[in-house]
């Protein structure tokens, strides 16, 4: 495909300012700032029942992180724009949607202020399902996923970039995953330890909710990881970084700090599987095996840690079946991403 050419005969894609590593790192820093504010706000909603104002310290962290990212994008936009060029071309490739995210986030923030003023401060599930909060989540994801999109479009001279080179992308992927897990925390086994401790009087709903949580979080995690694996040859340490950071963030919500070890060991095991299997779109069998094995190992470690720290009341058939089902979910996602070849019609 021939790149588009401007009226002056310049190749537009070649003239467009690229996303430097420094630019990616700044956006990663500001996105992390915003993400920390989100989790602080989530902690406050879970533990402080007397919230009666929009103006809180955790909102301050959240919105100041957003303002830093938005200001950085706006400064870059005005500095790079050339007379006669479209505004969309002033940002590096991959960051146009981040600018759209800024507009969505601003709209959600104004709406959230009005919402809280009229209807008060939500608690529990209401805080997650509030339309203004979901709008903020969409805007924040578009802003924070800029480094991922930039790396997706970048052509590197080597097919195996280093961990340092891919770190902004991996942190951006962690940002995306962590926003998803935050807004589905009501069905997250790292927040609600349904299998742990002594068996409750009514066992059906704790078992059902626990199993649904494992399957949902497997789908979110493997969807994100398989997308990255399909695009890059990830260096050793990639999964360790993503899973450890995500599990650490989730542990803050209910002080389940023992489960950070699950993310750490699960990420390390995932890196070993990556190095051993070398999954890719050109090796669909290995890709599927990787997609199946990672969640099985992760939730196997989950039940081991629970057994050591608080005990597991789920029966062996139930918790072992949950591990197998997690693997099946990962496998199905790999089939969706790399469908089997269709027969050639004669």
Helix and strand arrangement:
Blueprint: H1 12-15, H2 21-47, H3 57-80, H4 96-119, H5 125-129, H6 131-144, H7 146-153, H8 163-183, H9 204-231, H10 238-254, H11 260-277, H12 284-309, H13 316-337
Helix pairs in contact: 2-3, 2-8, 2-10, 3-4, 4-6, 6-8, 7-8, 8-9, 8-10, 9-12, 9-13, 10-11, 11-12, 12-13
Describe this structure in words.
This protein has 346 residues and is mostly helical. The chain folds into 2 domains: 1-164; 184-346, no CATH class. The protein is 69% helix and 0% strand. It is built from 13 helices and no strands. It has helices at residues 12-15, 21-47, 57-80, 96-119, 125-129, 131-144, 146-153, 163-183, 204-231, 238-254, 260-277, 284-309, 316-337. Helix 6 runs antiparallel to helix 8. The longest helix has 28 residues, at 204-231. It is globular, with a radius of gyration of 22 Å. 41% of the residues are buried.
Which features would summarize this protein structure in a list?
69% helix; 346 residues; mainly alpha; disordered N terminus; 2 domains
Main sheet attributes: strand count, strand direction, barrel closure: none
N to C succession of SSEs:
HHHHHHHHHHHHH
How much of the sequence lies in strands comes to: under 5%
Please tally the β strands and state the result: 0
Could you give the distance between the termini?
Answer: 30 Å
Structural class: mainly alpha
Poorly predicted sequence stretches spanning 5 or more consecutive residues: 1-15
State mean pLDDT (0 to 100 scale): 86
Structural domain count = 2
Q: What is the count of DSSP helices, taking H or I runs of 4+ residues? A: 13
Rg for CA atoms: 22 Å
The best one-word shape is globular
Helix content: 55-70%
């Amino acid at each position: 495909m021939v790149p588009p050419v401007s009226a002056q005969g310049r190749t537009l894609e070649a003239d467009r300012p690229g996303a430097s590593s420094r630019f990616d790192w700044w956006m990663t820093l500001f996105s992390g700032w915003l993400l920390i504010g989100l989790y602080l706000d989530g902690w406050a909603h879970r533990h402080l029942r007397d919230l009666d104002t929009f103006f809180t310290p955790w909102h301050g962290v959240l919105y100041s992180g957003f303002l830093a990212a938005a200001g950085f994008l706006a400064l870059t936009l005005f500095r790079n724009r050339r007379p006669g060029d479209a505004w969309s071309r002033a940002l590096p490739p991959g960051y146009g949607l981040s600018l759209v995210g800024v507009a969505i986030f601003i709209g959600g923030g104004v709406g959230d202020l009005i919402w809280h003023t009229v209807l008060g401060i939500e608690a529990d599930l209401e805080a997650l399902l509030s339309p203004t909060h979901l709008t903020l989540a969409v805007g924040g994801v578009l802003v924070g996923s800029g480094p991922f999109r930039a790396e997706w479009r970048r052509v590197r001279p080597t097919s195996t970039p280093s961990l340092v080179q891919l770190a902004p992308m991996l942190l951006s992927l962690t940002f995306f995953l962590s926003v998803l897990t935050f807004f589905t925390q009501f069905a997250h086994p790292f927040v609600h330890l349904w299998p742990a401790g002594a068996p409750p009087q009514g066992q059906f709903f704790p078992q059902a909710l626990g199993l649904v949580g494992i399957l949902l979080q497997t789908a979110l995690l493997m969807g994100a990881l398989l997308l990255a694996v399909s695009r890059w040859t990830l260096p050793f340490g990639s999964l360790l970084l993503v899973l450890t950071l995500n599990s650490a963030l989730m542990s803050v919500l209910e002080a389940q700090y023992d489960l950070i070890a699950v993310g750490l060991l699960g990420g390390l095991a995932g890196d070993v599987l990556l190095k051993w299997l070398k999954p890719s779109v050109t090796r669909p069998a290995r890709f599927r095996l990787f997609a199946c094995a990672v969640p099985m190992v992760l939730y196997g470690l989950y039940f081991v840690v629970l057994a050591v720290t608080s005990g597991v009341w789920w029966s062996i058939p139930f918790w072992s079946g949950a591990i197998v089902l997690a693997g099946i979910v990962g496998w199905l996602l790999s089939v969706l991403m790399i469908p089997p070849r269709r027969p050639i019609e004669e």
